[in-house]
Amino acid sequence: MTEITDYKQVWTYRTPRARLWTWAGWFALVTLFFWCWQIMTEDTIWAFVSDAPRQAADIGSRMLPPRISYMSELWGPLWDTINIATLGTIGGVIMAVPVAFLAARNTSPSVRFLRPIALFIIVASRSINALIWALLLVAIIGPGLLAGIVAIALRSIGFVGKLLYEAIEETDARQTEAVQATGASAAQVLIYGIVPQIMPAFWGISVFRWDINIRESTILGLVGAGGIGLKLQASLNTLAWNQVSVILLLILVTVVLSEWVSAKVRHAII
Amino acid sequence: MSAQSYPTSWKRPAQIVKDPRWRIALQVGIVIYLILAISTIDVNWTRVYEGLERGQRFIMGFLQPDFTSRWRDISQGLVESLTMTLTSTVVGVAISIPIGIGAARNIAPGWIYAICRSIIAVSRALQEIIIAIFLVAMFGFGPFAGFLTLSFATIGFIAKLLADDIEEIDATQVEAIRSTGASWWQVVNYAVQPQVMPRLIGLSLYRLDINFRESAVIGIVGAGGIGATLNTAIDRYEYDSAGAILLIVIAIVMVAEYGSSYLRKFLQ
Question: How far is the C-alpha of B42 from the C-alpha of B102, rounded, in Å?
Answer without folding.
Answer: 50
